[in-house]
Amino acid sequence: MNIRNLKIILIIGLILAVFPMPYGYFSILRIYAVIVFALLLFQIPSKKQNSRNWNFILYIALIILFQPLIKFPIGRTLWNIIDMAVAIWMLITLNKKK
């Protein structure tokens, strides 16, 4: 399975997170998101330095935000906004070349 397919699954999962789901769904989604963001982090090309820095910072921030060990009490509404914003951003960058 390539990284594009993993991103598509994460996008769908983030969109579904807006709907009422059992708590276990969110726990699994967070673990999956961290794995995908970590894979994306390691695939950042080292050629474009400025772009590389922003992507590096963004993926680290997303890994920290979505990590399942220490949960940030930011409320369901804000989580819905974050989930949709990340899903839209990932959808926009889905076909972007490395």
Overview of this protein structure:
With 98 residues, the protein is mainly α. It is 70% helix and 0% strand. It has four helices and no strands. It is globular, with a radius of gyration of 13 Å. The relative contact order is 0.16.
Features:
98 residues; mainly alpha; 4 helices
List the SSEs and their pairings.
Layout: H1 3-16, H2 23-42, H3 49-66, H4 76-92
The gist of it:
With 98 residues, this protein is mainly α. It has helices at residues 3-16, 23-42, 49-66, 76-92.
* Structural class estimated from helices and strands: mainly alpha
Task: Give the termini separation.
Answer: 17 Å
Low-pLDDT sequence parts: none
Number of helices: 4
Mass-distribution shape: globular
